[in-house]
Amino acid sequence: MEEQQQIDKLDKKILSLITKNARIPYLEVARECNVSGAAIHQRIQRLMKLGIVSGSEFTLDPKKVGFHTCAYVGIFLDNAGLYPEVVGQLKDIPEITQCHYITGGYSIFIKVYTRNNEDLKHVLVDKVQSISGVSRTETFISLEESFNRQIPLE
Fold it and tell me: Can you spell out the DSSP letters for 1-21?
């Protein structure tokens, strides 16, 4: 288990601001935190070096770019030892946006975005279920994402 990195109150305030808007100017963060822009720049660089924060990204609205079906799929493996090979093949399926090795009934849990239910069926049958070592899947279609947020720092 990774050791928790030491962050102080200022780091938490900076993280709160930049996770809400990755494009917020450092000077605006500095004003909100009552410190200099240089101090913010140094803090963010330190947080990046520690691996607490990485990169920045724009978030796409899947429906607005044509992906109307979101599904979560539990994957059962023939043998848990096949996990690395199966994950390697799952990475090659662009519709899969998340993949987790989990406890419980499934070995792997994935999040999939497809254009529609027919496309989802194609991804499941022709791509996921055809991977050697996948014994079966169980699919849950999301009707609506109620919210999506970063972890709390309090």
Answer: -PPPP---HHHHHHHHHHHH-
Q: Say if residue 39 is in the same domain as residue 83.
A: no
Rounded average pLDDT per 10-residue block, the chain, 154 residues: 73 92 93 95 94 86 96 96 96 98 95 98 98 97 93 79
Contacts of 97 (CB under 8 A, 6+ apart): 111, 112, 113
Do the domain assignments include residue 55? no
What DSSP string describes 49-86?
HTTSS----PPP-GGGGT--EEEEEEEEES-GGGHHHH
Tell me if 132 is assigned to some domain. yes
Is 97 within the bounds of a domain?
yes
Q: What is the pLDDT of residue 3?
A: 53
42 touches 35 (CB < 8 A): no
- pTM for this predicted structure: 0.83
134: which 2 tokens?
């996948």
